[in-house]
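Morning!

As promised:
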Amino acid sequence: MADIVLSELVKEYPGGVRALDSLDLTIDDGEFFALLGPSGCGKTTLLRSIAGLETVTSGRIEIGGRDVTALQPGARDLAMVFQDYALFPHMTVRDNIAYPLKIKKVGRAERHGTADETAEGLSLGGLLARRPGQLSGGQQQRAALARAVASRPRVLLLDEPLSNLDARLRLEARTFLKRLQRELAVTTVFVTHDQAEALAMSDRMAVMEAGRIRQIGTPSAVFHRPASTFVASFIGSTPTNLIDAVVDRDTLTVAGVPMPLPGDVRGQVRGGEELVFAVRPEYLSLHAEARPTGLPGTVAVVENMGVSSLVSLDVAGSIVQVTVPEGAEPALGATGWAVPDPARVLLYRRGDGQLVGSPTQPVSDGPAAGGSASGAAVPAGR
Amino acid sequence: MTPAQWVRRLGFYVVIVLIAAFLAIPVLWLVFAPFDRAPTLTTSLPAWTLHNFATLADNPYALRSLGNSVLLAAGTMVLVTVLGALAAYALSRVRIPGRDGLLYALLLLSSIVTGTAAMVPIFLLVFQLNLIDSQLGVVLVLSGGLLPAAIFIMKDFMDTTPRSYEESARVFGAGPLQILRDVVVPVVRPGIATCAVWTVVQVWGNFLTPFILLRSPEKSPAAVVLYTFYTEGGQPNLGLISAFSLLYSVPVVAMYLFVNRRYGFRFHGGIKR
């Protein structure tokens, strides 16, 4: 097993497009690491650079303390599962799984033994003689995984491993992948554009945008304390409300409503400074009567999400979304007050979109620290 | 059905029958004439005899020329498929500026300029290479003419093979030739089979190139030997010609059936499904 250390990695395509922009990243031994970002952010390029399928323009890639920057993919001792699985259509499942061992010149009997054993572990036992075309999507994915892990690589790379599965199967595969990774304890890097996948599966994740990493941390740290408005708007199944606010001495004016300025950011903002007030729909509560710290608005849209509903409030021309529990949906056109949970409010600078308070605070702390991180978030006075 | 519909349907069938007869009668001639002692240009049921085949067996060049045809066709086929597959793989995977233009130019030149128009320069070239009256010379000239089209067809097949297959094999440590052998060739096998059969058919039917480049009758392929079957009076010897034509067409039909069964054709005038 091995850790992965990337330093000052640059990948520039002909034509001057910088897919990776001086990127530093350390992935620990045995970690399940997610690369998350919108399409075109460079996450797949980064994964392919680690695999050696892309030659980096400059920088270093180390796997297990060995500089592999100039090595061919095959010499890096890693395995990769492609988005389309890339199972060879002319080989049986057994031959597919045994193929990496064949390349490594393992004898026929031994490689078939290993293939059978690996397939058994991934419940592909009865399918060994079939061709990939005769397997379902989930079985193909498991066959591709079996082929990747059969050669016992030190690093496992997964490119959008779940995107070709249908929604139901994706949830099962998520649990399955996470358990498999834990059992093998192999350093695993996976790329996804689905924030829910990254939050659910990874030990740590990196959120990427435009060839740079915007934030690295545990899913809980990234979810509770996004480092910038970009991360805040990208993470979470419902988008974070980002409302313009202005500092006015000791108070914060949010969409025309004055709220007390929290004590711990008081020294870090100037009077008249423009900020962004961020709070997730889940951390707002909707009231039918006026509240001093409530944002008043009229109900514009109600979306049913199963156990809860997402209510869009029209607050002075901008939309604020609030999650309300089942059975508490307001009527369309009704007036309501959205009251933020003071412990969950975050403030960002309007200029660069960075978090006010502790931008340098380590965000890579463990899951337990996630609670304290949110506890340190701006307590708006009640 | 109204009488007008009857008439229309009748007319339709008459046209169909005429077209079918037009296509079928020459084939019937090929089946019947070899077994007729004195065949003419009309198709009629013969008084069955193997006399024509016996005469053919006595001809010193006839059966030997079929072997020559096989040799030329096989040699050209191996050269065209191996070189064509390698070139098509490279052209499909490596980005070269002007790649498509180059391919189209080659295809255009090979299909328009070669053949009759290029025969004099080709003859001079082969002469300079000391390959006149050598079957190697014929194989090289034919391969050169067929390669562009073969590369074009095979590149089309290779383009449709997902790149992730090769990348996957690369990550497992396979080298370029290993990838070609284990992954690319098996995946594009129908394309290669198509090209191989197409090459064999082209060479089998080619008359001009071996006719000009080969001097000795014992090296000539069947297409050239067929041209020599005349009676003493200078008339075409229809008995020999028909018998030889039948023998000449059997291998191609057999190969077609074999390859179709074994590999499955995806040949629709060079356009794949």
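The longest helix of chain B spans residues 62-93.

Hope this helps with the figure draft.
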